[in-house]
Amino acid sequence: MGPHGIIGDEIADPRSLGRDNHAIYLFNLDHYAHFEALLTRPLRPGTFAENVLYEGPDEFALRIGDEIGIGSVRLVLTTPRIPCHKLWHFVQAEQGFSAQFSRSNRTGVYARVLEGGDIRAGDSIAVVRSDPRNATIAELNAAMTRFDCDAGLLTSVLSSPDLLPGAADAIRRRVAGNQPELLAEPVRARVVGWRRLSHDVTELRITAPPTTDFGWKPGQFLTLALPVGTGATLFRCYSLTAGPPDAPFTVAVRRNGAAGHAASVSQHLFDADMTGTAVTLYPPSGGFCLPDIPGDAVTYIAGGIGITPILAHLRHLAAGAARPSVRLVYIARDRAAAVFHDELRALAEGWDTLDYQLHLTRPGVATAGRPDVDTIVAEAPEEAPLYVCGPPGLVHAVRAAHERRGRSNAALFYELFEAPGAGGEIAETVPCATVRLPDADISGTWRPRDGTLLDWIVARTPFRPPAACRAGLCRTCMAVLSHGAVAYPDGIAAPGHGRVLLCCARPASADLAITLPATTQRLQTSETRDVEEIQ
Length: 535
Known about the structure:
Blueprint: E1 24-28, H1 30-39, E2 52-54, E3 67-70, E4 73-80, H2 87-90, H3 97-103, E5 109-115, E6 125-129, H4 137-145, H5 151-158, H6 165-178, E7 187-196, E8 201-207, E9 221-228, E10 232-242, E11 249-254, H7 261-271, E12 278-285, E13 297-303, H8 307-318, E14 325-332, H9 341-349, E15 354-360, H10 373-379, E16 386-390, H11 392-404, E17 412-416, E18 433-437, E19 442-446, H12 453-460, E20 463-464, E21 478-483, E22 486-487, E23 499-501, E24 506-507, E25 511-515, E26 521-522
Parallel strand pairs: 1-2, 13-14, 13-16, 14-15, 16-17, 18-25
Antiparallel strand pairs: 1-5, 3-4, 3-6, 4-5, 7-8, 7-12, 8-11, 9-10, 9-12, 10-11, 18-19, 20-26, 21-23, 21-25, 22-24
């Protein structure tokens, strides 16, 4: 192997990252079993034109910039393989195979040659150097190929020290065309309006600088960094009920007395007039959005404060030229808790095809008791979108009813409005687990009273992973799970293979190994602390 790869080998298309950065193509042997199952036939080694077929760590563990030793050769990992559309032809598959290949994250890895030498069959392969600040190859592949990257993943990839400039430019161009809000930086904003809507709900109106170009879609949430108490800053995500250009960014916050840090934020926003307060505003995000071209019918089910993103949908649809047929079931404890009932009733009076129903659950009123979710789902048009937002119990019931009727998951959209752990059963946890952070040389014992893995890390180590919402929505706390298993509350969708949502997960095996996100902060301390002694 010379400085440009295996002597005599050629590469047809080095693309914008150059020949040297594609000098060697490594492919994991275990991937063949996956693609053989997908294609339902055996595949010969070399089918994917790899230079080296190996056994060892794959794209979910290998990182950008990892230095790899094979025989007397030293390589530096650069990028995943981004297949051209002709891949399906070369492996004799259907035309959609190239997309399946990318989505699997089993893409193989390109590398450049750091030191030439000889490679022979049977040589050992080892990671000689790895920087935990770099994203994994699988994360880089997702950022380069997917249309639904989350802000945390994008930040992790773009902040990787060894990311090639050409790859970073390609990611930014791709995201700018599909998810431009993810490239926006947080800005300093100001609360320009504060009012109590009810005995436990407050509304905030927030104005960003005139140069801010976030853009937003009805149904998205806003992440705020809020000063609370004696100089502390806490993060929280709130669904937008309105936004520019028609109004300032507007959110409604329900006071919650039993949700940890979330409670301290909501209580603070309820108790104090926030008008004039400076806050840090992160770009709107989330996929609980209307399609670009709304269909003829849509069904909404809202529980409590879960009405907020749905209210944004309805305001948007009401302002359109062609209003679809809409059914809304708004579930609240009592009339006082149905904060937006008057506005919704007024909308329905002027909207012939809006069927609005208020369902009150507290005993002593005519419509008390749980709503008949099965009937609501059954009466929804078969192919029309169904949106549900509210507590985990409601979302789970709607999802179950939807599944029982054999309906397409593509037509169901849901958001959870409760911190994981506060509601919903967490199955398959263990009574005790050893949690290891190998990159920090830290390990300690987790017990159920410690709460989520994020709670354990914050309480028992000097590390502070990014965790903007603590509700499984923004996924800024996504970490690498290199060993062990975790369990999530009912209603939380688990991330892909080898990843863990720290804010939601609890150990489901006796031993875990976790690599924290690249943007994790470490508290400054002059002494070594035993994690078992940190309270």
